[in-house]
């Protein structure tokens, strides 16, 4: 059974599955005042040096001052610690399931991680296609403070969480509407062939930590897909330039029919071959932590798109010239939903649920 709603003559149909291919790993989260303590120590060391040596500020000396300040910090730092699920695949799957989509996650994990699968099941994510190998599950270490958040990624272990030796059941894509790969990486390359063999809308998330340069990206994506998300800064890192969004899109347009660029406080931007759209960010004073905003933005966008689009044929009709005005309205609504979904996450630090998100949007709009 499927739910059918009407939007200005367009039937909004929620059916089939959203399939997410992406990383699922462990996050070791430390809440600490380390960075604040470190900055004070460095400032104090520099201040003392300048007081006694005002005419000697050579770069090597400043470097030595900073190194001395860091070295003099106590070896052990007390912090609150928590072990959590992490990874783009985990995050997006959790958010989409919470927003009401029938969501399957395809991933590979290592030993001692069954607790993550059980948590995802409780959240409504279909974990049937999470595979396990005999290696250790990667752990990303997150240092979070009021000043900043930094993440140390176990890249050597992440690369081993691949599908080598695993016989994949591609028949699950027969009943799926959208495939979303996050982030696109060498180990997920084989899933791009799904776009060629099944009538499924295919989207990807591109991150500079996985894509080294333009040649690497071109080696991965041989055929144009339907949808991509990328942060503006990541795009410039991959291009090894500092370009404007129109200049960036001139390169990335060959990879997808719809390109969505997030740009922090600048907002988000969407390009097709005939349409350019933008949606402003919403700045609130009570933002706690922007970690996870990108995954939440994609989840909000996909959730809204899922409602509007019946299948891949419907998706491509949406991009035809004769439907430009209707297409603009649908896509700007997707961007709006994405923006509010990400905002909900960074303000509340909670997983967005459908009803809670509705209330949040009403409250925000009443305050603006």
List the helices and strands and how they pair.
Blueprint: E1 3-7, E2 10-14, E3 17-22, E4 25-31, H1 34-52, H2 59-71, E5 80-86, H3 88-98, E6 103-111, H4 114-122, E7 130-136, E8 139-144, E9 149-152, H5 155-158, E10 176-182, H6 194-197, E11 201-206, H7 214-220, E12 225-231, H8 232-239, H9 245-252, E13 256-262, E14 268-271, E15 276-279, H10 293-308, H11 312-318, H12 324-348, H13 354-367
Parallel strand pairs: 3-6, 3-10, 4-8, 6-7, 10-11, 11-12, 12-13
Antiparallel strand pairs: 1-2, 4-5, 8-9, 13-14, 14-15
Helix pairs in contact: 1-2, 3-10, 10-12
How would you describe the overall organization of this protein?
This protein is an alpha/beta fold and 368 residues long. The model is unreliable at 1-14 (pLDDT under 50). The strands form 3 sheets. It has a 9-stranded mixed beta sheet, sandwiched between helices. A 4-stranded mixed beta sheet has the order 5-4-8-9. Helix content is 39%, strand content 25%. The protein folds into 2 domains: 3-25 and 84-133 and 169-367, 3-Layer(aba) Sandwich (UDP-N-acetylmuramoyl-L-alanine:D-glutamate ligase); 34-71. The protein contains 13 helices and 15 strands. Helix 1 crosses helix 2 (59-71), helix 3 (88-98) packs across helix 10 (293-308) and helix 10 runs antiparallel to helix 12. It has helices at residues 34-52, 59-71, 88-98, 114-122, 155-158, 194-197, 214-220, 232-239, 245-252, 293-308, 312-318, 324-348, 354-367; strands spanning 3-7, 10-14, 17-22, 25-31, 80-86, 103-111, 130-136, 139-144, 149-152, 176-182, 201-206, 225-231, 256-262, 268-271, 276-279.
């Amino acid at each position: 059974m499927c739910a059918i709603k009407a939007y200005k003559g367009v039937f909004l149909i929620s059916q089939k599955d959203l399939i997410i291919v992406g990383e699922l790993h462990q996050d070791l989260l430390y809440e600490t005042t380390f960075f604040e303590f470190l900055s004070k120590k460095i400032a104090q060391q520099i201040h003392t040096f300048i007081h006694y040596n005002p005419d000697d500020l050579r770069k090597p000396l400043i470097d030595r001052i900073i190194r001395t300040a860091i070295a003099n910090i106590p070896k052990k730092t007390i912090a609150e610690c928590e072990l959590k699920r992490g990874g783009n695949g985990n995050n997006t799957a959790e958010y989409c399931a919470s927003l009401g989509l029938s969501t399957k996650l395809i991933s590979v994990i290592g030993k001692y991680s069954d607790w993550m699968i059980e948590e995802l099941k409780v959240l409504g994510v279909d974990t049937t296609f999470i595979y396990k190998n005999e290696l250790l599950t990667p752990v990303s270490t997150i240092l979070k403070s009021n000043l900043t958040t930094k993440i140390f990624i176990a890249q050597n272990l992440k690369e081993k969480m691949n599908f080598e030796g695993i016989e994949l059941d591609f028949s699950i894509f027969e009943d799926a509407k959208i495939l979303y790969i996050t982030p696109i990486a060498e180990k997920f390359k084989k899933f791009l062939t799904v776009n060629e063999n099944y009538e499924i809308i295919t989207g990807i998330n591109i991150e500079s930590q996985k894509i080294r340069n333009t040649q690497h990206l071109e080696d991965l994506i041989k055929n144009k897909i339907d949808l991509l998300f990328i942060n503006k800064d990541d795009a410039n890192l991959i291009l090894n330039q500092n370009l404007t969004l129109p200049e960036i899109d001139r390169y990335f347009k060959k990879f997808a029919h719809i390109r969505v660029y997030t740009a922090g406080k600048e907002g988000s931007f969407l390009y097709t071959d005939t349409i350019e759209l933008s949606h402003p960010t919403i700045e609130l004073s009570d933002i706690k932590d922007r970690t996870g905003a990108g995954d939440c933005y994609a989840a909000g966008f996909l959730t809204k798109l899922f409602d509007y689009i019946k299948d891949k044929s419907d998706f491509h009709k949406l991009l035809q010239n004769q439907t430009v005005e209707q297409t603009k309205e649908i896509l700007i609504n997707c961007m709006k939903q994405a923006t509010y979904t990400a905002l909900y996450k960074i303000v509340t630090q909670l997983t967005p649920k459908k009803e809670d998100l509705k209330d949040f949007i009403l409250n925000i709009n009443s305050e603006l």
